[in-house]
Amino acid sequence: MPEGFNEAQDALREDGLIVYPTDTLYGLGCDATNPSAIQRLRETKRFGPDRGVSVLFATVDEAKAWTRWTPTAQALADAFLPGPLTLVLDARADAPKGLLPPEGTLAMRHVGNDPARALARVRPLVATSANKHGQPSSETIEDARQAFGDEVDAYVNAGRLTGPASTVVDARDKQPTVIREGSLTKGEILEAVNRGG
User: Fold this and answer.
1) Measured distance CA(28)–CA(149) in Å, rounded
2) What does the pLDDT read at residue 165?
């Protein structure tokens, strides 16, 4: 595992913040079940309380336990997960409230990056880009350290990551809505859903 991995595991168990690699760019994360850690992440990232944050799960089945899974989500998961895709779904009642925007949705990820998935097996991970809100995303650990310094408890260094960011899709309805086009194109998303349907 990359440098800093063991320290990141420990930090997740102790309310800590970590910077870790995904299959696109570096992410800033914490234990998604820990309200105090989530609040600390919001303050560090400079996110307001009404802004939803994504959650990275070790398995798709774990994501299903927190969301109202749909046939559209299943078609996209079959086609692209693990991978650079974020699915927006309605949250179940028992999903941690500190993660959710006012509309009650949850954005889930299941990435192809092995260290990230291993960390998500410790705890489901808040998954937001490793930068202060409104600043450029981090392609290297040096970028992230410059942004956060000792505000973060552990940095997992997997070298340079070049992105682009994940594609974000609202998968609540029969027809998906691409919120942000990233590594996967709108055409690829629509083709996968039509093929799956």
Assistant:
1) 12
2) 87
Domains of the chain: 5-196 (3.90.870.10)
Q: Is the dihedral of CA 138, 142, 146, 149 positive or negative?
A: positive
Count of CA atoms in the C-beta half-sphere (13 A) of 85: 26
For residue 44, how many other CB atoms are within 10 A of its CB?
17
Q: What is the pLDDT of residue 197?
A: 61
What tokens does 117 get?
A: 């998935």
Predicted confidence at residue 26, as pLDDT, reads 95
Q: Is the peptide bond before 101 cis (omega within 30 degrees of 0)?
A: no
Residue that wins the pLDDT comparison between 99 and 30? 30
pLDDT at 51 over 90: no
Q: How far apart are CA 111 and CA 102, in angstroms?
A: 26
DSSP helix/strand/coil, 116: helix
Q: What is the DSSP letter of 68?
A: -
Q: What is the reported pLDDT for 123?
A: 92
Sheet containing strand 154-155, edge to edge, reads 154-155, 18-21, 26-29, 125-129, 54-56, 105-109, 85-90, 167-170, 177-180
What ranges make up the beta strands (E) of the chain?
A: 18-21, 26-29, 54-56, 85-90, 105-109, 125-129, 154-155, 167-170, 177-180
Which of 154-182 are b and which e, b meaning 16 or more Cβ less than 10 Å from the residue's Cβ? bbbbbeebebebbbbbbbbeeebebeebb
